[in-house]
Amino acid sequence: MAFHEDELAAAEDTHFRSLTAAEADGDERAVEAALRPRSLDEVVGQSRVRDQLGLVLEAARQRGRAPDHVLLSGPPGLGKTTLAMIISHEMNAPLRITSGPAITHAGDLAAILSGMNEGEVLFVDEIHRMSRPAEEMLYMAMEDFRVDVVIGKGPGATAIPLEIPPFTLVGATTRAGLLPGPLRDRFGFTAHLEFYEPDELELIVRRSAGLLGVDLGPGGAAEIAGRSRGTPRIANRLLRRVRDYAQVRADGLVTRPVAQAALDLYEVDELGLDRLDRAVLDVLCRRFGGGPVGVSTLAVAVGEERETVEEVAEPFLVRNGFLARTPRGRIATPAAWAHLGLTPPRQLPGATDVTLFEA
Ligand SMILES: Nc1ncnc2c1ncn2[C@@H]1O[C@H](COP(=O)(O)OP(=O)(O)O)[C@@H](O)[C@H]1O
Ligand SMILES: [Mg+2]
């Protein structure tokens, strides 16, 4: 078939940014829904969280009561929404879903809470982004199953207490550190989700391939898993791109070479670095001799917004030991030089105050 690499890449260019982004966008949510584990038994990895949560739910079931409030924290794409749905499923209780940004007024929350039935599960995604007054209302609801609904304004305003049937709040946050202490303390159980190991991601890829009807050949799942940044959402996304490639170019079978060729085409390298990640390291090493260089300068040099460099590329690069944040700026580690196939300067930046390198 006459197909040019750059044509295929151009057609997908709008998707490029999101290929290794940990967040899901609109279309992706529908696909994700089909791939979500429905019960704790189906969840791959996170064994400690699974055991602990399993116990919390089982104990609540035996007592015939709504389980304690649960806080799920961790980076995007690791399974917070999935676990919230599993809690409702395992408790056989209806789930109501809202998010911090959607609750701008305490009244929004009062409306939701007053409509809850006994034992229901309320999932508040991005709970750290809720407004302050709503947060305060939530404390009371969580602890006393009661809210004060304020009627009217000014001196004539009156608070009408409203009882709420016992429910379970499941909060999810990517930034547990941003949650005010009093809110955090009202969760009976907090689960912190960790990045997944390659063998766990491989199991997830196999499971998803089964559900999507993708044929995996030798090494295919492992190759995708290795490039997924420890994140199931990315693993599932890369699987779909590799499936496209296999279908168009390789009779549909996802072998290791097919996965490699597909992901090389999409510029996701063998460690999961994408074009932006590599550009950052490249500029840092080649143009700034390994740093230290300020993040704003780095952003200008790669032609990106500072926020994009800081929030999209850096966390992954730091976590994988390619880049270090120092008070004087960003520096490339020996691993970064090695990954780019470059020889690090003899004296690495940060070792002394003034270090000069040959260009
Ligand atoms: N432990 C897991 N086992 C299998 N699939 C998972 C697991 N965790 C997440 N996934 C998959 O990854 C995708 C993203 O998970 P999600 O729960 O939406 O992440 P979060 O809410 O933390 O951003 C879902 O489609 C789900 O199928
Ligand atoms: Mg989510």
Automatic annotation (TrEMBL):
<feature type="region of interest" description="Head domain (RuvB-H)">
    <location>
        <begin position="270"/>
        <end position="359"/>
    </location>
</feature>
<feature type="binding site">
    <location>
        <position position="77"/>
    </location>
    <ligand>
        <name>ATP</name>
    </ligand>
</feature>
<keyword id="KW-0238">DNA-binding</keyword>
<feature type="binding site">
    <location>
        <position position="325"/>
    </location>
    <ligand>
        <name>DNA</name>
    </ligand>
</feature>
<feature type="binding site">
    <location>
        <position position="81"/>
    </location>
    <ligand>
        <name>Mg(2+)</name>
    </ligand>
</feature>
<comment type="similarity">
    <text>Belongs to the RuvB family.</text>
</comment>
<dbReference type="Pfam" id="PF05491">
    <property type="entry name" value="WHD_RuvB"/>
</dbReference>
<dbReference type="InterPro" id="IPR003593">
    <property type="entry name" value="AAA+_ATPase"/>
</dbReference>
<dbReference type="InterPro" id="IPR027417">
    <property type="entry name" value="P-loop_NTPase"/>
</dbReference>
<dbReference type="InterPro" id="IPR036390">
    <property type="entry name" value="WH_DNA-bd_sf"/>
</dbReference>
<feature type="binding site">
    <location>
        <position position="36"/>
    </location>
    <ligand>
        <name>ATP</name>
    </ligand>
</feature>
<feature type="binding site">
    <location>
        <position position="80"/>
    </location>
    <ligand>
        <name>ATP</name>
    </ligand>
</feature>
<dbReference type="Pfam" id="PF05496">
    <property type="entry name" value="RuvB_N"/>
</dbReference>
<keyword id="KW-0233">DNA recombination</keyword>
<dbReference type="InterPro" id="IPR008823">
    <property type="entry name" value="RuvB_wg_C"/>
</dbReference>
<feature type="binding site">
    <location>
        <begin position="143"/>
        <end position="145"/>
    </location>
    <ligand>
        <name>ATP</name>
    </ligand>
</feature>
<feature type="binding site">
    <location>
        <position position="330"/>
    </location>
    <ligand>
        <name>DNA</name>
    </ligand>
</feature>
<feature type="region of interest" description="Small ATPAse domain (RuvB-S)">
    <location>
        <begin position="197"/>
        <end position="267"/>
    </location>
</feature>
<dbReference type="Pfam" id="PF17864">
    <property type="entry name" value="AAA_lid_4"/>
</dbReference>
<dbReference type="GO" id="GO:0005524">
    <property type="term" value="F:ATP binding"/>
</dbReference>
<dbReference type="GO" id="GO:0016787">
    <property type="term" value="F:hydrolase activity"/>
</dbReference>
<comment type="subunit">
    <text>Homohexamer. Forms an RuvA(8)-RuvB(12)-Holliday junction (HJ) complex. HJ DNA is sandwiched between 2 RuvA tetramers; dsDNA enters through RuvA and exits via RuvB. An RuvB hexamer assembles on each DNA strand where it exits the tetramer. Each RuvB hexamer is contacted by two RuvA subunits (via domain III) on 2 adjacent RuvB subunits; this complex drives branch migration. In the full resolvosome a probable DNA-RuvA(4)-RuvB(12)-RuvC(2) complex forms which resolves the HJ.</text>
</comment>
<dbReference type="GO" id="GO:0009378">
    <property type="term" value="F:four-way junction helicase activity"/>
</dbReference>
<dbReference type="InterPro" id="IPR004605">
    <property type="entry name" value="DNA_helicase_Holl-junc_RuvB"/>
</dbReference>
<feature type="binding site">
    <location>
        <position position="81"/>
    </location>
    <ligand>
        <name>ATP</name>
    </ligand>
</feature>
<dbReference type="InterPro" id="IPR008824">
    <property type="entry name" value="RuvB-like_N"/>
</dbReference>
<dbReference type="InterPro" id="IPR041445">
    <property type="entry name" value="AAA_lid_4"/>
</dbReference>
<protein>
    <recommendedName>
        <fullName>Holliday junction branch migration complex subunit RuvB</fullName>
        <ecNumber>3.6.4.-</ecNumber>
    </recommendedName>
</protein>
<dbReference type="GO" id="GO:0005737">
    <property type="term" value="C:cytoplasm"/>
</dbReference>
<feature type="binding site">
    <location>
        <position position="196"/>
    </location>
    <ligand>
        <name>ATP</name>
    </ligand>
</feature>
<feature type="binding site">
    <location>
        <position position="35"/>
    </location>
    <ligand>
        <name>ATP</name>
    </ligand>
</feature>
<keyword id="KW-0234">DNA repair</keyword>
<feature type="binding site">
    <location>
        <position position="233"/>
    </location>
    <ligand>
        <name>ATP</name>
    </ligand>
</feature>
<dbReference type="GO" id="GO:0000400">
    <property type="term" value="F:four-way junction DNA binding"/>
</dbReference>
<keyword id="KW-0067">ATP-binding</keyword>
<dbReference type="GO" id="GO:0006310">
    <property type="term" value="P:DNA recombination"/>
</dbReference>
<comment type="function">
    <text>The RuvA-RuvB-RuvC complex processes Holliday junction (HJ) DNA during genetic recombination and DNA repair, while the RuvA-RuvB complex plays an important role in the rescue of blocked DNA replication forks via replication fork reversal (RFR). RuvA specifically binds to HJ cruciform DNA, conferring on it an open structure. The RuvB hexamer acts as an ATP-dependent pump, pulling dsDNA into and through the RuvAB complex. RuvB forms 2 homohexamers on either side of HJ DNA bound by 1 or 2 RuvA tetramers; 4 subunits per hexamer contact DNA at a time.</text>
</comment>
<keyword id="KW-0378">Hydrolase</keyword>
<keyword id="KW-0547">Nucleotide-binding</keyword>
<dbReference type="InterPro" id="IPR036388">
    <property type="entry name" value="WH-like_DNA-bd_sf"/>
</dbReference>
<feature type="domain" description="AAA+ ATPase">
    <location>
        <begin position="66"/>
        <end position="197"/>
    </location>
</feature>
<feature type="binding site">
    <location>
        <position position="306"/>
    </location>
    <ligand>
        <name>DNA</name>
    </ligand>
</feature>
